[in-house]
Task: structure prediction
Amino acid sequence: MASSRCAILLFLAILISASNAQNGLILPIRKDAKTYQFYTTVELGSNRAAITPIIDLGAQYSNATITSPPPTRPSHVVHGHGVVVSEFFGVDTLYAKNQQPVPEYLFSCMESRFMEGLASGANGLVGLARTEISLHKQVANKFNLPDRFSVCLPSSGLGKLSIGGPSSSTLSTISKSLKATPLIVNPVSTAPSYAVGDPSDEYFIDVKSIRVGGETLSVKNSYFSIDKDGVGGTKISTIQNFTAVHNSIYKPLARGFTKAAADMKIRSVAAVEPFRACFSSDSISRTPAGPSVPTVDLVLPGNDIYWRISGANAVVEVNQRTTCLAFVDGGSNPRTSVVIGAHQLEDNFLEFDLVSSQLKFSSSLLVQNQSCSRL
Result:
């Protein structure tokens, strides 16, 4: 009897382990209200050191500050914020609550002074760039999963970072709203330090034009394309707070949004830095999807394919009386013409499929009476 019971328990343990491995890794995402950064929680090593890393789509690999160094390898670290020199790479087991541990997880160990500018309490980065040692690639390789991951940044509550693909329940909830567009490769690295010939490992999409309130902005096509030096184009960032666009895009965008807002009887008011187009909150009506304001569409290749930025994603309430267009002027000489920021990603489901080189996206879930915290 005892041996039968042990056999049953062992079989159940194997099933649970296989199920966890097959499903990959699901991590909670929280928003830091002060910095507008997004973070998760994991544990590292046999002492289960608590790590609170910031979610960074542009970081080439994960890093952490820990007090008890794990087995190491020499390294020189580069991530999405700038050049960071660390003493070593660490190799240890990664733990997430109630899930299969990730063995021999490779990450960069760095000094705490390099964490300046991150949310209070943050002591690492989750690297999600298109590299061999990113979090998603390591999990995919160790659990024999397709290299894909999804991100759903919450405006409140808990969002999800799912490695290996979203759950079936998530897909059944939002599958009808998902659109797809190719992930394209910038032929020149956008990292602060790189070798000649290295392509970018950040995530670019082929935005063709921008519409405001249904009207296409008058902008040169060259700003949306990537030239031979890797300048231009559109990338997605979880570190950039608000979408930053080239000055030659920002000016017609702000004008077009202000005009469309006026047509909706929304009153303009004095600008509040870093924003240029601001409005009286009292003149804006409310909907379940946020403020009722003009829509901004990023037009993509294909028949009627566009990423709609509306409501709470299009504007930000800077104080009780003022609401502003949540885009900033990226200057007249940015490396990338359009950097889609985290505010525009909130309550949008995004799946990065590195197998098919596709981005699947939902636009605002709030429009569907859903949110990242309810998926």
About this structure: Confidence is low (pLDDT under 50) at residues 1-21, 73-86. The two ends are 43 Å apart (CA to CA).
